[in-house]
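Subject: complex prediction, re-run

Hi both,

The earlier run crashed halfway through, so I resubmitted it with identical inputs.
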Amino acid sequence: MTTSSERNRLPPGTVVTGKWNGKKYKLERLLGVGANGQVYLASQGRSFCALKIGTEAAELQGEANVLASLDGTERGRGRPPFLLDVDDFSLNGRDIPFYSMRYVPGTPLKNYLKRHGEHWIGVIGYRLLERLAELHEAGWVFCDIKNDNVLVHDYGRVELVDFGGVTAIGRSVRQFTELYDRGFWSAGSRTADAAYDWFAFGMLWLHATDGKRLLQLLNTRLPQDRGVEDLMKLVRSNSRLRPMEKWLERAFHGSFGDSREALGEWRLAHRKQGTDAAKGPAHVPAWMAGLLILSVALCATLATVWLFR
Amino acid sequence: MKQILLITDGCSNVGESPVSAAAQAFAEGITVNVAGVVDEGTIGEHGAREIGEIAKAGGGMSRIVQTRQLSQTVQMMTRQTVAGTIRQAVNQELKQLFGLESVGALPPAKRAEVVKVMDELEETSELRVALLIDTSASMKPKLHAVEEAVRDLALSLEARIGSSAVAVFHYPGEFGHLPCALDCDWTSDAGHLPLLFSRIKMKGTTPTGPALLQVVDYFRETCGKIRSELAEAPAYGRGDAGEVRSDYVV
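This time it finished cleanly. Structure:
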């Protein structure tokens, strides 16, 4: 859907001055366009932040409320606050609502894996699950986990962005992406719970490492036939994810006790994979052994032929 | 909160004007949203205009989309309409009490408090969505997508805390004398939706206006009573029974 917000981009260098709190921001560049607004990189003197500009004050305030509430529950962890300012600015005589938040650097997961290699899956997944466990323990579900919302930087550090979908546990999920949605795959309800995030987290890896086959599956399956078994088939035939088969199966079925357990199991699965891989080279593949025997035999035959010539 | 969601792919050609029918629905407190489905080609200037006009008269919104976007669009419109209805009510209160134009005119700290209440209402208010689906001949290849969109919407509504239900109608009706036919009575359980359009005989006429009015009648017959009952017994929620109405007709 094209929205009016796509057309009304503000040029870099635009200065946004808050009507209530008086803070000044200089827009540097557009970071992204969402369903209900645009996000810019903005500077305040030397420091940077992300500025979300919307059209509907109530909607934007709703998101800001979630961020403020998250900041409240997470203050104890020594995490810097997300939400910095909520205000309006005047543009062509109209009041436009905006809020500013901490700027999160990084590249979307898929790009990071492409550049740095898929062996980063273990670390990135661990950090992401830990972040999710924190959210869940504070009573929230992220809900809209997807490639674009998972930013990775320096050695697999992960940040979630776009908190517009964050929902209190037990409420209905209001923002999701079909491909990652538990309901879409007939694997459960759209009520927000920790398992909703585990499912999307599992889909994240399928999408990141096997996107083409996943989309193919999507186009060939009728809606009523979509199910977890289809996803598991993809997992089993994917060399990257095969070692995680048991973990992913539990994630898709939502059968972990809680998110800490999911985190612990994720770590174990990757340790095991690592030790298996270390053992790996000791086993000489059959085809290699066969080739060796063949070449020795060939050599011997040739030598015999040459000697008795 | 009451909504009608009309899914169609062309112009009406029989009976009352669908625009005045939508206006009548809105006058009775029912918002009308319209999804126009097109695949190849366009819906035609006349069709697009009519869709826009129906939504405008019905106090709702309209979108013209491809079948694969239908699920998403249907949910977006339903949710936005709920939010919009609440926003409107709150703005009206603010205007009466404080002479303020809207929530946006409040300073951010107060706005935060008001929006918290609005979000709460959005999740907990009672919601009824009647889907009215055009099954004239040209819709045939799109009905799979429509069926999926209906199920998907039901799944989302089922997750709400407030009592929510959908009913499904298609038009034209089977027997000629009724403009539309009921496929599924109010239900709050996505799992209990029947197979919707498997036995429908496709016909040529498109009585959009009369069909809309019949759905408005249905709202009058079924919802006036439910509303007071549910207000008295908020504990009665989803999951108790597949069908809401039958237990609560006084």
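The longest strand of chain A covers residues 24-34.

- K.
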